[in-house]
Design a protein that fits this description.
9 helices, 368 residues, 7-stranded mixed β-sheet, alpha+beta, disordered N terminus
Length: 368
Amino acid sequence: MTPMGDCGRLSEWPRAAGLSDRLAVVGVLLGCLLAVVPPRMAESAEAAGLKVTAGFAGVSKTAVWTPVRVRLPAGDAATRVRVWAADPENQPVGSPWQPLVETPSGDREAVQHVRLGRPDGQLAIEIERAAEPSSGRLSIDIAAPLPQSASLLLVLGDVAAASRGVRLLEEDDGWRPTVVTATVDDLPGASALDFDAADAVVVCGSICPLPTPVFEALDAWVRGGGRLVFLAGESLERLAASDAAELAWLPAQFERLVPLRSTAAVETFARASRPLPTGNEQLKMPLLAPLDAGRGTPLAAVGPTLADLPLAARFPYGFGTVGWLAFDIDQGAFASWPGSDALVLAVLGRERARGGRSGETRRDLLDM
């Protein structure tokens, strides 16, 4: 009998067969179906020991390059991974395969860059193992990304004044920039794309020198058009002793620290209503070599002219901009002084927009 004839006899099966026979045939058909469907990963992210972090300390934005750090435990047989994210039409887009490298802790990780096209915070991770080349995808939930229109200020260091300062920029409709405070460990430090979501980055001299990969990635981002604020006063003496790479973020060469005999110029620059509470502390500030013509513009200084002893300066850096403040405002008297809020905003280059939307003001807080 031909196969077609056998298929024809199936039409008689419902009447001739009992319940047990019918269940047996259904089981055979399901087994055949499962045999031809590619297997998916049955394990969960927790069972696989998978850790995934997107953006800066878990904060990301849509429609920009977002670093995704994928980490697997030591001893895992995985050889490479890739990340899938949905585009605006909800179609999955996969990154190139990336080999896993060993970290100092013994774990293995890879960093990928994807564009999040949807606001739902969904990723999929595909893992390739030597004994299991077709691994399938693990669905991962991340924090919902910020919209592309949001302004994001990344702070490396403990600068409470940055969070307080942006409140001064809040507009009538409640809009204000998002401040993300991160540590160096939160940054992949492999590419300038790591900082694509940031509108500006604030770096404290107290946490420098940065690891070389992080410095190089951040420096390349600034040179490519990014905006950096470098808060470094007395910490410059330590950085100069080690010839730290961050000295390139100064408007002129550092020479030495000198006493700040009066805080009046600082308080005037900050438009502070309260004096800087120095107590018995002798404040010092950096003395720089004279600024070269065209290198930048001092924003304030101690003395009758801006060329005397700059308190702050702003200058071009490649296609980007660097703003420098001559104090470690995450330290000492500056840490709790309300005037530090205004100092951060002054170096960022944007005061509070007056009139909200009715004034047709641009919403790039960090326009330096």
